[in-house]
Design goal:
- The structure is a single chain.
- This protein is α+β, with helices and mostly antiparallel strands.
- Helix content is 27%, strand content 32%.
- The chain folds into 2 domains: 145 residues, FAD/NAD(P)-binding domain, CATH 3.50.50.60; 165 residues, Alpha-Beta Complex (Polyamine Oxidase, Chain A, domain 2).
- Strands 1, 2, 3, 8, 9, 10, 11, 17 and 18 form a 9-stranded mixed sheet that branches.
- Helix 1 packs parallel to helix 9.
- The N terminus is likely disordered.
- Bound molecules: flavin-adenine dinucleotide.
- The site of flavin-adenine dinucleotide has 38 residues, from helix 1, helix 4, strand 12, strand 16 and helix 9.
Amino acid sequence: MITATGTKQTIDVLVVGAGLAGLLAATKLQAAGRSILVVEKAHGVGGRLATWRLGPGRGDYGAQFFTVRQPQFQAIIDEWLELGLAFEWSRGWAAGSAVADGADDGFPRYAITRGMTAVAKHLAANLTIHNQTRLTHIREAGDGWEVAVEDGRTFGTRALLLTPPVPQSLALLDAGNVPLNAANRAALERIEYAPCLSGLFWVEGGVALPAPGAVQQPEQAINWLADNQQKGISPEAAIVTAHANPRQSKIWYEAPTGELVGLFMGGLRPYLHKTSVIKAQHIHRWRYALPLVTHPERTLLADGLPPLAFAGDAFNGPRVEGAALSGLAAATALLNSA
Ligand SMILES: Cc1cc2nc3c(=O)[nH]c(=O)nc-3n(C[C@H](O)[C@H](O)[C@H](O)COP(=O)(O)OP(=O)(O)OC[C@H]3O[C@@H](n4cnc5c(N)ncnc54)[C@H](O)[C@@H]3O)c2cc1C
């Protein structure tokens, strides 16, 4: 039960982060009868499941599609397919892609109808979520935790689930002097991520990306280009997503937006008609985009502290599927620990 005392609340599990890991964990914990609160620093939900409205259209500027390897994730996708939330986008990429050049490799690539954020909104509908709530530090408090928000609010919780990229979670614990044991700290500090620079471009006058509307070319500076109109999530306008590869993203990370537009246009121009014009653009810098070094288990439950679990795509399997399975594993670990 949630009890409010001034600005403090005591809840069973406070989930930090409304990305896929946090949303699925919170759903499972709530279904098991726990009182939960999700806090999220951003205005909306989804984290790296991110969709932006640009002109009359929209484009995914974080995750582009997802694949399924495990039956547990397949069951979730089957439900999303049934609800019309997810659809199969393709089984391979276009001619011109360095990977599976023009081939159907038999593995479905799924996407979310109206953009990735839609599935996060669907999951969030039955949860208590405080948006625009950025934590600044976490402290041990008795047999639980106290978390502090930048606007001065604090929340009390018996258990804590941290799903931000791990360096950000560690910074929150360090700010409150939480004594993580040496083995846990070493395991968490091993995790590394690559950045990704992402651009969305509203193109009028035609985009010539081959069916199914995307090229994947790991060796190129711009390693991914996708037409969100051909993908089916932006019928109103051609919005093209462009990603810089990890190496270029690192080099150009701090460059001014104008220079990044130039970098993206180098990759995009070959797929535009001579008369095409860019009507608007949106550039986003993801500091922690894709894990390079992951933890070998789906979750980490801290030793010798009140219940504290870590989850996200850096735990045992990267990407959307890894985040989902990690969130579920962390929820199970917390249910078993109480
Ligand atoms: C550009 C890009 C392209 C990608 N492409 C693909 C792809 O095609 N296929 C695929 O499978 N995966 C892809 N991924 C990876 C995929 O998006 C992630 O693996 C997955 O979405 C991660 O989910 P998560 O819940 O672990 O983390 P996140 O989605 O990062 O969620 C963490 C949440 O914590 C919040 N948070 C952080 N700090 C605080 C704080 N102090 N207080 C409160 N809240 C906080 C964040 O705002 C965020 O919402 C891509 C990622 C990027 C960035």
